[in-house]
Amino acid sequence: MAPKKPPASQLAAEFAKRLAKERRRLGYTSKAAFARVLGLAPPTYRRYERAEIEPSLDVLHRLYRIAHLSLETLIIGQEPDRIDPSPVERLPSPKAKARR
Question: Which CATH superfamily is domain 10-79 in?
Answer without folding.
Answer: lambda repressor-like DNA-binding domains (1.10.260.40)
